[in-house]
Amino acid sequence: MYLWMRMQTREGIMRAFAREIVELNIKHYLNLLKTETDQKKRQTTTQLLAEEEEKLAASGVGNQER
Question: ∠ CA 8-50-62 to the nearest 5 degrees?
Fold first, then answer.
């Protein structure tokens, strides 16, 4: 039982870290889009942003701070 509880906690921590990384990536890409003028870089950044937003939506957890 103790090992199972430790694994559940570890998995929860890993999910929280993964969600935090996704949220930080989204903020980073949004900031890049505020100043980037090169169209190719904007396209790439927009695609990366969409991918991160999909990850966040798939996690089933909303982003409260964005």
Answer: 45
